Amino acid sequence: MFRSLTRESANGPGHAGIGGKPPRPCAGRVVGARRYPAGMSLSWSAFASPFGELTVVATASGVCRVDFAGPDRALGEFDEAALSRDTGVASEAARQLGEYFARQRREFDLPIEWEPLEGLRLHVLRTLHEMVPFGETVSYKQLAELSGRPEASRAVGTIMGSNPVPLLVPCHRVLASGGGLGGFGPGLEAKRRLLVLEGVLEPSLLELDLLS
């Protein structure tokens, strides 16, 4: 049903296990989110997508948040920062995401702000970002194995739920055991439509507009 990225295809010969049901969805809103210092310069952009309004926030170093929400909700945790609209990295991220939704882009050429992340969370998200490309999927257990922590499939599910930059770090490509969709903060229909957009799933009649 899904085109799965095996350990052999991604990282040389090896076994790709199946399993690891996710305890939490990929949400785009971070649990225990970092509070950015008062006066810190951040750029942001909001734009319409097939899933409603999306908001991107970035430091000078890279994208730090992609939120499936408009700016009134998405910018709340940045209320003490110095925000500038449609400038810098955020503006470029919005442009590239627009190309992705228009089926004109398969890879993003954008820096990610990794600095607030640490430990296993940082390692798993960087592994996902670097090793699971457009049109491929992995299970939670497979991602744990690719990350060198085969025992950590449940922790991987939790990490997907606290992914601050969905789409750019593609938690929609991580599935439940047995090929189920698993969770996704914006909803399973949004996750399915993203997988249709990437050619992983066949479109229904109602989803053909994504491919036109």
Descriptive notes:
With about 210 residues, the chain is an alpha/beta fold. The chain contains seven helices and six strands. The strands form two sheets. The protein has a four-stranded mixed beta sheet with strand order 3-2-1-4, with helices on one face. Helix 5 (about 140-145) packs across helix 6 (about 155-160). The longest helix has 14 residues, at about 90-100.
Low-confidence stretches: 6-25, 27-33
Count of extended strands: 6
- Strands ordered across the widest β-sheet: 3-2-1-4
Helix and strand element order: HEEEHEHHEHHEH
Rounded radius of gyration (Å): 17 Å
Helix and strand composition category: alpha/beta
**Fraction in beta strands:** 5-15%
The average pLDDT value, as a whole number, equals: 84
What does the overall shape look like?
globular
Tell me the major beta sheet. Answer: 4 strands, mixed
User: In percent, how helical is the residue content?
Assistant: 25-40%
Instruction: Work out the helix count.
Output: 7
How widely separated are the two ends? 23 Å
